[in-house]
Design brief:
With about 250 residues, the chain is α/β, with parallel strands linked by helices. The chain contains 8 helices and 7 strands. It has a 7-stranded parallel beta sheet, sandwiched between helices.
């Protein structure tokens, strides 16, 4: 059997960097994509194939596709991991809609753009058995909003939550659409847990809110994410999985 090939977006730091590290450690071939490879010092130390990719840019996604096609890369797993969260959480009344559109462009259109660019490479996977993993968040679960908004946050964070809810629906629709053309494809959204990254800890936000200490480190989160992804079959395609395994988060 050939070596598993994976592509990770947003690989410069946080969960994306750890996805690259753990897949490389398993002997997999990794294409690590980030906005500015020259500045991705931690990533460059892993000595992987690093490719430039800004997920908000059609041009950038097209250039990535050309690179993959040039060398006939067969992609087994695509991780749409790149994402953004607002520094200052917004309520519906004070939300800046231009900013909201920007966030949707990264968190929702980004994964769609990258999937479209990578489809030829994914279809070269053995027996068409490829996986698309959209890194989502339980904050995008409408069912879970009923559990309450954390008390230390001043707002619902409608921008981030709506972007991940849209990503979840986009995941489900993609799974249904691909079932017709690619019956062996698996498309899932995965919640990685609450993790100590720049985003998870609010590090560097400079927004007056205190930094917090999330319960998980990147190693714990990503070993769970990878185990969940490796175990996912066509039966789970279209669902929203928790990093610790288990049911559709909805
Ligand atoms: P970080 O803020 O630590 O890292 C975000 C990554 O996304 C960086 O590599 C960043 O690149 C990249 N990125 C942002 N915008 C773009 C873009 N336009 N093009 C390409 N890359 C981009 O976040 P995490 O590692 O914590 O988050 C990774 C994913 O996990 C996100 O989708 C997030 O929503 C999700 N998530 C995280 C949770 C947590 O607790 N940490 C919980 C639930 C979900 P650059 O270095 O260039 O800025």
């Amino acid at each position: 059997m050939s070596v598993l090939t994976v592509l990770v977006t947003g690989a410069s730091r946080g969960l994306g960097l750890e996805l690259c590290r753990q897949h490389a450690q398993r002997g997999h071939k990794v294409f690590a994509c980030c906005r500015t490879p020259a500045d991705a010092h931690a990533l460059n130390q892993l000595h992987l194939d690093v490719l430039p990719l800004d997920v908000t840019s059609d041009e950038s996604a097209t250039a990535l596709a050309a690179k993959l096609d040039e060398t006939h890369v067969a992609l087994d797993i695509l991780y749409n991991n790149a994402g953004v969260a607002l520094n200052r959480k917004a309520n519906m009344e004070d939300v800046n809609t231009d900013l909201w559109a920007e966030f949707l462009n990264t968190n929702v259109l980004g994964p769609a753009r990258v999937l479209k660019a990578c489809i030829p490479a994914l279809r070269r996977a053995e027996n068409g058995k490829f996986k698309v993993v959209n890194i989502s968040s339980s904050l995008g679960s409408i069912g879970r909003l009923a559990d309450g908004v954390p008390v230390d946050l001043p707002a619902t964070d409608v921008v981030y939550r709506s972007s991940k809810a849209a990503l979840n629906m986009s995941t489900a629709c993609t799974a249904v659409d691909l079932r017709k053309t690619d019956p062996n494809a698996v498309v899932v959204a995965v919640h990685p847990g609450w993790v100590d990254t720049d985003m998870g800890s609010r590090r560097g936000n400079n927004d007056g809110l205190p930094e917090v200490k999330p319960p998980l480190n990147v190693e714990e989160s990503i070993s769970g994410v990878i185990a969940t992804v490796m175990a996912a079959t066509t039966k789970e395609s279209g669902t929203f999985l928790d990093f610790a395994g288990g049911a559709d988060l909805v």
